[in-house]
Every structure is written in structure tokens, then in C-alpha cells.
Automatic annotation (TrEMBL):
Major localization listed first in the record, in broad terms: membrane
Identification of the protein by name: Potassium channel protein
Keywords carried by this UniProt record: Ion channel, Ion transport, Membrane, Transmembrane, Transmembrane helix, Transport
Entry keyword Ion transport: yes
Membrane topology: Multi-pass membrane protein
GO cellular component terms given for this protein: plasma membrane
Length: 577
């Protein structure tokens, strides 16, 4: 809905609810003023005086509001005083009626909703900074908004739950994040949220209904075909429809959860690197989880359990399943199945005593926490991975002290945040997952040497005239710049800045873990990981031609006019000699 139509709706509601009070005031004022002008006043020099219309209007204005400035411009006759009493009572009654109607108007839900939409649309329209539209503000949406705020990226939020939108007012975000209580699948609300706004970078659908997410994605593709859409989906049917749409990225929280479980069990070094990149609390680079080898007990065989079982089974990891509703024919041969709740007896029947660990993956937090207690009693050495469904139960899961807690809303929010802020990071992780672990270990060693114990800072640069003018001019005029030369420290040449280039995006393809001798080209996008102060240092190199020339050649070129003249003169003299 456009701001103009919102304003029209507000005006219509005001006129509808204030029409009678305004007519009542107009009638009382008209009768009072006319009556006061017609009432005979005092007799002066044998002639009866009367008020003119201006004086009558002035007198009635302050009398109807019970202000009372006296009898102006002259003393009143008894007739005028009697009419004044009538005007006073009728004016007060009319004003009480009008004020009461006005109070009722501002409290009317339709008026509040119309004003909220008008203000929301105006904020979005006036915004010039890049922003993302979030459709859905549950656990995942709230966590994603916090991550965007930490990266100083704005978001516009739509949600059908009024209480969630009200909660925006008490969040301490670093950037403005306007929200609207509305159906995000309605095109008018998507337009009001800025789906066609030039500063809109992406639309993320995070509602708990896959049908709604699909509808939002379809509407967004029609309203702005160039806009990137990231859609949460847990249904194979909806996922197939979404992948058929152009420029739509599908995120399945169950697949992400299962992938992280597999990495934690079989690719601990990759799980450690990924957790370090996304800033998981307490994770130290190069200190992966020490997970025992052997069979695993999987408690819960819903949609997430199916994904976990498929990932583990595909890589030769034995799984024993506990679920009351599991169908043994779906599991396959060779898998132990216990059709029961994950209580003490079921865990014993599944052989928890000699299992490497347990994955508590039901959709009830109380059941998962109860499973942890039972596992601790049976096998204290078992590795415990637990699924956390609700962010509100964080304190209880902290107290449970499981070896690994995976909150699927948090893991989904982190995956989407990587896609929005640094898409090359997820490409790198997926690329490493398909290669031998030694590549991941080598990258970890390089990052440890470059950064020490500093937390990771990820950023990307693009070698385009608007973002790296010195580099593009140098490439156009003089030729080659290598990646290693660009990363030199101008303050301590030829030392290297404490950072590592993780990937280069060039002409639609990605180059992972590029070497320092790789030549750069105009249009390259480079993903870096380093200490936070390195980014502004590198920005200075990208924008300052003298700094760039120094880190590339090691020669500090003269900068002033006089020194440049001396340089050219001596260069000419040396050539003649």
C-alpha cells in the first residue's frame, strides 16, 4: 500500500468518526454567535447598542471554552447575559462531546492500524540505506534481526503477531528497524515494506507456515523480479516449487541442523571452523570437539530425525533410533529401532551403555532435557547432542551442560546471516565439506598464525571504481597486482597484514583459498578474514594510489608538486647520461 492511500484512509476514518462532533460544534457556534449579535445591549445616549459579528465571535470563542475574560467590549444587558448563560452551557456540552469523540477516535483499532501503516510506509520510503525485509519475527526472525543489527544492516519487519511487533520498541538495535503488524503475503503490505524500493537488498520469509512462505516468495518475484529472496521451507513439495523460481534461495532448518550434527560427529575440524566464523560463544579456533567413535542413539524420528539419520547413514555412521511412531520399514535394514518414548527403559534397549553418544532431537524441549538426565545416569561418558526448540528455555539448556546444544532457530538465523552479509563464507564451508579434512586443517593453521587469539572479522571488497578506485586505475594503467601485494602492511613493508583471503568471486565463479601470487582483476570480489583494524587499513590501500603503489613496488613515490618536479628532472638527466 502506498503512503498516499494510507493517508487517504486515515483522512476517511477521521471524517467518518468526527463528522457529527464537528457539525455539533459548528451548529452551537453559529447559533451562539448569531444570537449574541442580535441580542440588544445597553442603551447609550438613547440608542440600543449591539455587538458586531467579530466581537460576538471573539466573545463566544473564549466563553465556550470557559476561559472568561469579562464582558467585552462594553458591559452587557440582561438579555445578553441570559444568552451568555445559554452559550456557556451549550458550548461546554458541545466541546465535551467533541473531545470524547476525539479520544474514542485515537483509541479506535482501525485508526491506530491506519496510522501505523502510514507512518511505517513513510519511514520505509524515506530510508536511503540498504535494508532487508523480514517476513516473520519469531525466534529465527528475532535472532536474525539481532545479527543484522550487529553488522549495522537495517531491516524492515512484517509479522501477523501484534505482540511481536510491539516488542520491537524495547529492542536495543544499533540501526532503525521499523515493523508493521500485517499479513506479509498481501502484496500491498510487501509494497509498503519496500519490496520495490531501490535500497532493498533481499527479502527473507521466516513464517512457520510453508504455504505462506511460498506465497510471499511468489508475490515478491512478481513485484520485483530482480530482488533476492531467501525462503525458509521444511517441505519437499514447497522446496521444489521454490527452486523453480529465479533468484530464490531455499533454507531448510532441518537440513542445516542435520548437517551441523554430522560435522560435529565426523568433521570436527570443519564444525569448529564454521562455529568460529559465526561467533559461537566459547569456541576457540583449532580446538574442535573431541567426539568418540561408534554408534549413535537418535531420540526422535520426525522430519529432523529423518534428516539426521540420512546424513549419518550416508557416511557410514551407525544409528539406533528411539521413537514411539517410527515405522521400521522406513528406516532400512541393519538399524536398531525402539518404538517407545526416550525414557530409561528405551535407552537401555537401544544400548546406550556402549554407544558413542546420543542426539536428543524431538520437538519438545522437556523430552530432550529428560533424555539428557537419563543418558547421564546410564553412560556418563556418552557424548550428548541436544536440540533446543524454544529460545525461552536457554537457561535450562545452559544448566543441562550438554556437550553440544543446537537451537535450530539460531542455526537457521546464522546461515541466513552469512548468505546476506558474506555469501562467500558459506560457499567456502560447503567447498571444504566436499574436500579432505587436511585442507580445513591447513586453513585453520594459517588463520591461527595470522590472527592469534583475536576474534574473526569477515568482510568483502570489490575491485570496482566506486569501492577501489586506486586499484582499478592501477590495473588499467600499469598492469598486474597480486593478492599478496595487496595484503602488505604499508607501515612495515614488506610485512603482511594480519588477515587471510578466503575466496575470490570472479566472473560468476568462485576461487577458494587463493594463493598470494594470484593476480587480481577488475571486478573481483574478495572475502577476507582478519583482525578488525585491518579492514580500514586495507580500505586506505584501495583508495590511495600512493599507498597502493608503495605496497606493490616498495617505492615511495613523491607526492608534492616540487618533489614530483625534482623526480622528473633527475629521471630526464639520468636518461640523457
Amino acid at each position: 500500500m502506498t503512503p498516499t492511500s494510507d493517508l487517504d484512509r486515515v483522512t476517511m476514518i477521521v471524517l467518518r468518526y468526527m463528522r457529527r462532533p464537528l457539525f455539533a460544534l459548528l451548529f452551537v457556534y453559529s447559533v451562539g454567535i448569531l444570537g449574541m449579535a442580535l441580542m440588544p445591549g445597553q442603551v447609550v445616549d438613547g440608542e440600543t447598542t449591539r455587538m458586531n459579528l467579530f466581537h460576538a465571535f471573539y466573545f463566544f470563542t473564549y466563553t465556550a471554552t470557559t476561559t472568561g475574560f469579562g464582558e467585552l467590549p462594553n458591559g452587557f444587558s440582561d438579555e445578553q447575559r441570559l444568552w451568555t448563560i445559554f452559550c456557556l452551557y451549550t458550548g461546554v456540552i458541545a466541546w465535551f462531546y467533541a473531545i470524547g469523540s476525539l479520544i474514542g477516535l485515537v483509541q479506535h483499532p482501525h485508526f491506530i492500524q491506519a496510522m501505523d501503516r502510514f507512518r511505517f510506509a513513510r519511514k520505509v520510503e524515506r530510508n536511503v540505506a540498504p535494508f532487508v525485509i523480514l517476513c516473520g519475527f519469531g525466534d529465527t526472525g528475532s535472532l536474525l534481526a539481532r545479527g543484522l543489527s550487529d553488522h549495522h544492516m537495517r531491516a524492515v519487519i512484517l509479522d501477523s503477531d501484534l505482540e511481536r511487533i510491539k516488542a520491537l520498541g524495547v529492542r536495543d538495535y544499533t540501526v532503525p528497524m521499523p515493523g508493521l503488524h500485517a499479513d506479509a503475503s498481501a502484496p500491498k503490505h510487501l509494497l509498503a515494506a519496500g519490496v520495490a524500493h531501490p535500497a532493498c537488498r533481499a527479502l527473507v520469509t521466516l513464517t512457520n507456515d510453508d504455504d505462506v512462505n511460498l506465497k510471499i516468495a511468489v508475490m515478491a518475484r512478481h513485484l520485483n523480479p530482480r530482488l533476492r529472496v531467501i525462503c525458509r521451507s521444511t517441505s519437499a513439495r514447497h522446496e521444489a516449487n521454490l527452486r523453480a523460481l529465479d533468484n530464490v534461495t531455499v533454507v531448510d532448518p532441518f537440513e542445516i541442523f542435520a548437517q551441523l550434527v554430522y560435522w560435529a560427529i565426523a568433521r570436527a575440524e570443519l564444525h569448529n571452523l564454521n562455529a568460529w566464523f559465526v561467533g559461537v560463544r566459547g569456541v576457540e579456533l583449532g580446538a574442535p570437539l573431541q567426539v568418540p567413535r561408534g554408534d549413535w542413539v537418535l531420540c526422535g524420528y520426525g522430519r529432523m530425525g529423518h534428516c539426521i539419520h540420512r546424513h549419518l547413514q550416508a557416511h557410514g555412521i551407525g544409528v539406533r533410533i528411539i521413537d514411539q511412531d517410527v515405522d521400521a520399514s522406513e528406516v532400512g535394514e541393519g538399524t536398531v529401532v525402539v518404538q517407545a518414548h526416550a525414557d530409561h527403559s528405551a535407552l537401555g534397549a537401544a544400548g546406550i551403555g556402549d554407544a558413542a553418544g546420543v542426539v536428543a532431537a524431538t520437538d519438545h524441549d522437556s523430552d530432550n532435557l529428560n533424555t539428557l538426565l537419563a543418558v547421564t545416569a546410564f553412560n556418563p561418558e556418552a557424548f550428548r547432542i541436544v536440540r533446543q526448540n524454544s529460545h525461552e528455555n536457554q537457561v535450562a539448556f545452559d544448566a543441562a551442560r550438554a556437550d553440544l546444544v543446537l537451537q535450530h532457530s539460531l542455526t537457521t538465523a546464522r546461515r541466513i546471516l552469512k548468505l546476506l552479509i558474506s555469501p562467500l563464507v558459506q560457499e567456502l564451508i560447503d567447498w571444504l565439506a566436499d574436500r579432505e579434512p587436511v585442507l580445513t586443517e591447513e586453513l585453520v593453521a594459517r588463520l591461527q598464525v595470522a590472527m592469534g587469539a583475536a576474534p574473526p572479522h569477515l568482510w568483502s571488497i570489490r575491485l570496482v571504481p566506486g569501492e577501489a578506485p586506486a586499484v582499478t586505475d592501477y590495473l588499467a594503467d600499469e598492469g598486474a597486482i597480486t593478492l599478496g601485494a595487496l595484503c602488505r602492511d604499508a607501515r612495515a613493508f614488506p610485512s603482511k597484514l594480519p588477515c587471510e583471503a578466503l575466496a575470490i568471486r570472479r566472473a560468476g565463479r568462485s576461487i577458494m583459498l587463493p594463493k598470494g601470487e594470484r593476480p587480481l582483476e577488475a571486478g573481483d570480489e574478495i572475502l577476507f578474514c582478519g583482525v578488525q583494524w585491518v579492514e580500514p587499513m586495507l580500505q586506505a590501500t584501495l583508495h590511495n594510489p600512493y599507498t597502493l603503489r608503495y605496497v606493490v613496488t616498495g617505492v615511495d613515490e613523491p607526492r608534492g608538486y616540487l618533489f614530483t618536479w625534482f623526480k622528473d628532472r633527475f629521471r630526464g638527466a639520468s636518461k640523457r647520461a
